Amino acid sequence: MYLSDRDIRHAIDIGDISISDFDTKRLQPASYDIRLGEKFLVVNPYAIPNIDPVNKILPEYEEIIATAEQGFILRPWVTVLGTSIEKFGSEKYLIQLSGKSSLARIGLIVHNTAGLINPGHYLNITFELANMNSVPIILRPGMDIAQLLFSEMTSPPEQDYRKTGRYGEWSDNLIGYVEKQ
Question: For the chain, how long is the longest CA-to-CA vector?
Fold first, then answer.
């Protein structure tokens, strides 16, 4: 069951949901709009011949900082990483990231597969931004980019990101999650 706007506001008031810079103007009937940050990671296509996740051959990235005035130009058929301004999380609720329909209609995808945030996980989400249109899309830091939906759990989870330690740790860049060795 998804939380309504009144349930989201109540959960924030009692501390069951945490959203930095919470603003009631971004609260929707059953979701909360989050904004795009200023950092983007772009793959260096000439650094490696291919990507092989099983053998830990991963792309090299270049970080780009964009301003609201200049924006970031997302070229057609390209995927880059971006981040949210808001840091959010909950011990009690499963959080689902969803794109905004107005942006989906112009071909912007905000996440390819990583749309769930488990209870106990607090983060600035990393967006997997992809332009499926045939023309560039200008992304501007501070724009509403996605929405969060909050789901009740049928029971508290046995595992917790902050307690088990088996989920790795967060790096200081947008790539985010790094497996512990």
Answer: 51
Q: Is 86 part of the annotated catalytic residue set?
A: no
- 134 CB burial (10 A radius; 0-12, 13-18, 19+): exposed
The CA-based angle 134-59-36, given to 5 degrees, is 55
3-state secondary structure of 99: strand
The verdict on domain 5-46+66-155 having CATH code 2.70.40.10 is: yes
SS3 49: coil
At position 5, the amino acid (one-letter code) is D
* 3-state SS, residue 101: helix
128, 158, 169, 179: the catalytic one is 128
Which residues on adjacent β-strands are paired with residue 108? 131
Domain boundaries, the chain: 5-46+66-155
DSSP-assigned letter for residue 2? B
Residue range 58-93, pLDDT digits in tens: 999 999 999 999 999 999 999 999 999 999 999 999
Cα 143 from Cα 40, distance rounded (Å): 14
- Which tokens go with 102? 């107005």
pLDDT the model gives residue 180 = 38
